[in-house]
Write a structure and sequence with these properties.
Radius of gyration: 26 Å
Bound molecules: fructose -6-phosphate
CATH class of the domain at 3-252: Alpha Beta
CATH architecture of the domain at 3-252: 4-Layer Sandwich
Number of strands: 25
CATH superfamily of the domain at 3-252: Aminohydrolase, N-terminal nucleophile (Ntn) domain
Structural class: alpha/beta
Length: 634
């Protein structure tokens, strides 16, 4: 996690670094810092200024405004703490003992303990608990060695020192380095963590993600794994891990990747919840245009060969994306008839199941940067391609909201959910977008395999086309209902969410949303499992939110809800109005729709209730504690 940005050019670097970091705050906001080099008055050498502040970027911004950080070259960092508490002394940039080398890093240096021990045994003093601090010490030592060979300090020397040091670093990381002896050169390097170079007018930048570059330039050059780059006011030099110079053409940034504003909404999360009818409308327009034949009812961006011979599907994802994957698996199995399994990417990468033939592997990640998901997909591709038998060859598909992400570069087939930039750390409209992507896939597979008759396909298509309108009405209604209900949760410490079948993942998602933004402990359970243990938790003070939508398990869920009511739990139903649902103490009503599409509507009360409970508690909804929007560490 963490976001890094680096710039060299003709303008003062500090305000530009702050602007860039603002676009990267979604990657972490435990602390922020920057270092600049000013060469105006030091006989060719630079004067290094380093400013760091704990907490959000605004604190660093104020510090830089009041104390200044001169120079046309600099590096910046916004931190999500991995090694060491979120305190100022652990904030980046980190420096060597002399204070001549400064480094920002995103990722984890896995062998930092042994490196630190060696450096300490040589008398180096460490001032932070971070894994990063070994890097400036190592680079400073390398530079000393290179200078000892009689060479004059220059950008190439700094690049060489960084190359030598990255050769001993283990882990996944991206870093940027400056050195007082080369005030017009900075070096960046990446290994399994994203880094994109921006080519501006008279300035060159580098950042963890494109939104940090979009305010400066639309010409970008994503760095490849293992590459090191030297940036000076004259241009960039790119080298691969063997030290060979690389020549690649830059590409153009598409779409608006700059962070949007909140409009009249109090929080980005609320705005993004309200944008969901539009997300669905765009999806319908793109994928369900009029006039498609019933044998191919969804417009998909894939070749014929993509679908051929698939016998099973495995889906790898984390967090909310995994919940979307679970709904997807239900649709792919129950509607399209393809055996499908869902895995936590973080588990799969170390304990994959035995290889199955003719298997499609789907990675779901809204950011396209989740380290575990990328690594699990990479591992799966390698082990399949190493197998030798074509039946086991790798076939992969990525579902993401970022067509310019690492996932999009790694995986050959991409479904872009096109939900637009999501700023709130809690995923909302991207969850809907991921769900819709799975409806598209399930419909496509079902009709190609003739697993459903044309009327069933047509019915689902008709219902999907009506989803944007349902969402519009529901959001209006539930915004008010949830706000009114939220005050009742002022003292609540535990909440149970129940669902079954296709809505079990929505119960999980409801619990996750509540936990992450309101800090209330919540559990999502398959309703039928309650009596096997968790029912012991129930009592008067524990609300139970039960999703009960007409369909195969409707009566079962209502019986499970009754069991909770008998234990005096407060019962909140997410269900249609009617005599059966009178058992609920409180009803968050949904329209009667087919069970297939019910998750698309049931998610709305989950999101809005969590939002209003957190808002009622006065919490920092868009940037909840300890979280980050893009989880780029393992
Ligand atoms: C929850 C949330 C996280 C993410 C998870 C995976 O609201 O946002 O649980 O879903 O970190 O992120 P992506 O989808 O970027 O792989």
């Amino acid at each position: 996690m963490c976001g890094i940005v680096a710039i060299v050019g003709s303008r003062q670097a500090a305000p530009l670094l702050i602007d860039g970091l603002r676009q990267l705050e979604y990657r972490g906001y435990d602390s922020a810092g920057l270092a600049t080099l000013d060469s105006s008055s030091n006989c060719g050498k630079g004067v290094l200024t380093c400013k760091r502040a704990s907490g959000k970027l605004v604190h660093l911004s104020k510090l830089v405004d009041s104390e200044g950080a001169p120079g046309h070259l600099g590096i910046g960092h916004t931190r999500w703490a991995t090694h060491g508490k979120p305190e100022k002394r652990n904030a980046h940039p980190h420096r060597d003992v002399s204070g001549h080398v400064a480094v920002v890093q995103n990722g984890i240096i896995e062998n930092h303990r042994s490196l630190r021990k060696d450096l300490e045994s040589q008398g180096k003093k460490f001032v932070s608990d971070t894994d990063t601090e070994v890097i400036p010490h190592l680079i400073a030592d390398e530079l000393k060695l290179l200078q000892g060979e009689g060479r004059q300090p220059c950008g190439a020397m700094l690049k060489e020192a960084v190359q030598n040091v990255t050769a001993v670093l283990k882990g996944a990381y991206a870093l940027a380095v400056i050195w007082v002896e080369t005030p017009d050169a900075l070096v960046v390097a990446r290994k399994q963590a994203p880094l994109v170079i921006g080519l501006g007018e008279g300035e060159f930048l580098c950042a963890s993600d494109t939104p940090a570059l979009a305010g400066f330039t639309r010409t970008i050059l994503p760095m490849e794994d293992g590459e090191v780059a030297l940036l000076t006011p004259l241009g960039i030099e790119l080298y691969n891990s063997q030290g060979e110079r690389q020549k690649r053409s830059p590409s153009l940034l598409t779409g608006n990747s700059q962070v949007a504003d909140k409009r009249h909404f109090r929080h980005f999360m609320l705005k993004e919840i309200h944008e969901q009818p539009e997300t669905a409308e765009l999806w319908v327009a793109r994928h369900l245009p009029a006039g498609l034949p019933i044998e191919s009812p969804v417009a998909m961006p894939f070749e014929e060969s993509f679908y051929e011979g698939i016998e099973s599907i495995q889906i790898l994802a984390c967090g909310t994306s995994r919940h979307a994957a679970m709904v997807g698996a239900y649709l792919l199995e129950q509607f399209a008839g393809i055996p499908t399994s869902v895995f936590y990417a973080s588990e799969f990468r170390y304990a994959p199941p035995p290889l199955s033939p003719h298997t499609l592997t789907i990675g779901v990640t809204q950011s396209g940067e989740t380290a575990d998901t990328l690594a699990a997909l990479d591992m799966e591709e390698k082990r399949r391609n190493a197998h030798g038998d074509l039946a086991f060859a790798s076939r992969q598909l990525g579902i993401t909201n970022r067509s310019d992400s690492s996932l999009a570069r790694q995986v050959p087939n991409i479904l872009d959910i096109g939900a637009g930039i999501e700023v709130g750390v809690a995923a909302t409209k991207t969850f809907l977008g991921q769900l819709l992507a799975f409806y598209g896939l399930a419909l496509t597979f079902a009709s190609r395999r003739q697993n459903r008759c044309p009327t069933e396909i047509q019915d689902l298509l008709t219902e999907l086309k009506a989803v944007p309108n349902h969402l519009r009405k529901l959001i209006q209604k539930h915004d008010q209902l949830s706000e009114a209900l939220a005050s009742r949760f002022a003292e609540t410490q535990d909440v149970i969410f129940l669902g079954r079948g296709i809505n079990y993942p929505i119960a999980l998602e409801g619990a996750l949303k509540l936990k992450e933004i309101s800090y209330i402990h919540a559990e999502g359970y398959p309703a039928g499992e309650m009596k096997h243990g968790p029912i012991a938790l129930l009592e008067r003070r524990v609300p139970v939110i039960s999703i009960a939508m007409p369909g195969v398990v409707f009566d079962k869920v209502l019986s499970n809800a009754q069991e909770a009511k008998a234990r005096e739990a407060q019962l909140i139903g997410v269900a249609p109005e009617g005599p059966e649902t009178e058992i609920f103490d409180e009803l968050l009503p949904l329209p009667v729709v087919s069970e297939w599409i019910s998750p698309l509507l049931a998610l709305i009360p989950m999101q809005l209730l969590s939002y209003h409970i957190a808002a009622h508690r006065g919490l920092d909804i868009d940037q909840p504690r300890n979280l980050a929007k893009s989880v780029t560490v393992e």
